[in-house]
Amino acid sequence: MSIEDVKQWNDARLNIALSKEMGWTDNGAPAVYYGLIHKYTDDITAAREVQAKAMEVSADRYVSNLDYVVNPDSTIDVWTNDAIVKLLQATPRQIAEAAYLTLKG
Predict the structure, then answer these.
(1) Tell me: the pLDDT tens digits for 70-97?
(2) Which residue, among 23, 17, 105, 8, has the nearest Cα to 64 in the 3D structure?
(3) What is the spatial distance between Cα 6 and Cα 69, in angstroms, rounded to a whole number?
(4) Angle 15-4-54 (CA atoms, 0-180°, nearest 5)?
């Protein structure tokens, strides 16, 4: 799964996929109970939860994924203050995309 694929998903699809990764819904279930779906793409608190899980899995991979989501054309070998600020200002959607890529490994 590439970032380009995930970027084309609507919020509902990404929220469902992340809710499954976080254990809120059964990965094998034929249907999804929408009351259990968290709004990772809209709610910064929910986005931080999935971010924490992704960093548990691999902090290095998460930061690399977030950098690619936020700075897709970047070729930075050394972190500048501007690049770091962009990571810190990531939207819930950007955090969710990077977390999903990290959790799916």
Answers:
(1) 988 777 677 888 889 999 999 999 999 9
(2) 105
(3) 10
(4) 50
